[in-house]
Design brief:
Elements: H1 2-10, E1 19-20, H2 22-29, H3 33-45, E2 49-52, E3 56-59, H4 64-88, H5 91-109, H6 113-130, H7 134-153, H8 160-177, H9 180-198, H10 206-213
Antiparallel strand pairs: 1-3, 2-3
Helix pairs in contact: 1-7, 2-3, 4-6, 4-7, 4-8, 4-9, 5-6, 5-8, 6-7, 8-9
């Protein structure tokens, strides 16, 4: 449910300021109001929903500036993780990273957006773990969770899967060589590109901008399973 609602907010089909009625959402998802309330709480923590005392919840306003500031932080955190991974990953961790990365090329070839999206999350998680720094890992995961709907939405843009894989390839190559500086730069560049790709989803007129970019958005009833 959280994922389905988040996707609709990010892609502009639930507009900023629109009221999110608990009863209507409960009926749509065939659940009680309790899980709906919990889902809205998670969405509020992600910055996608604004909860007002005694007035219910509304879709939050997501500005280009706020989104850019979060991605800027994410880029620096991922650069640190990639740099440390190049220095600290074990031989087994490096092999697993390379094997999974090469296997994901097949997902790009067949246009498996959901499969690649799952791989993408795991790819970045491997970098966070490979840094072997618990504090940085936790900071990076927390920041990524707030950006997750936007990072997921980028794969709705035509050709983005192939570009994402190519950007990952530069990161993996640097890590396999043990080149910390190159790995950090590649990871920072990758997140900066993701930021640019995701910026369309915080546009002033989301629907018209998305139409120009050929974005495909699922209907709420067809959204992926809840997470």
């Amino acid at each position: 449910m959280v994922r389905a609602i988040a996707d609709r907010i990010v892609t502009g089909y639930l507009r900023p300021g629109e009221k999110l009625d608990e009863s209507s959402l409960a009926a749509r998802f065939d659940v009680s109001r309790t899980p709906v309330r919990e889902a809205l709480g998670q969405l509020s923590a992600m910055g996608l929903v604004e909860r007002r005392p005694n007035r219910g919840a509304i879709v939050a306003v997501i500005t280009q500036e706020h989104l850019a500031s979060m991605f800027e932080s994410m880029a620096e955190l991922e650069a640190i993780c990639a740099r440390f991974s190049a220095e600290r990953m074990t031989a087994a961790e490096r092999r697993s990273l390379e094997i999974e990365h090469q296997a994901s090329a097949r997902l790009v070839q067949v246009g498996a957006e959901e499969g690649y999206e799952y791989f993408n999350t795991e790819f970045h998680s491997r970098l966070y773990r490979g840094a072997h720094n618990t504090h940085i890992h936790d900071l990076t995961v927390a920041t990524r969770s707030r950006l997750a709907p936007f990072r997921r939405a980028q794969f709705m843009l035509p050709g983005r899967l192939a570009k994402s894989w190519q950007e990952h390839d530069v990161i993996v190559t640097a890590i396999m060589r043990g080149d910390a500086a190159a790995a950090g730069k590649a990871a920072r560049d990758h997140v900066s590109i993701v930021s640019e790709a995701s910026a369309v989803f915080a546009a002033d007129d989301p629907k018209s901008v998305k139409a120009r970019h050929g974005v495909k958005v699922p209907h709420l009833a067809q959204s992926r399973p809840p997470v």
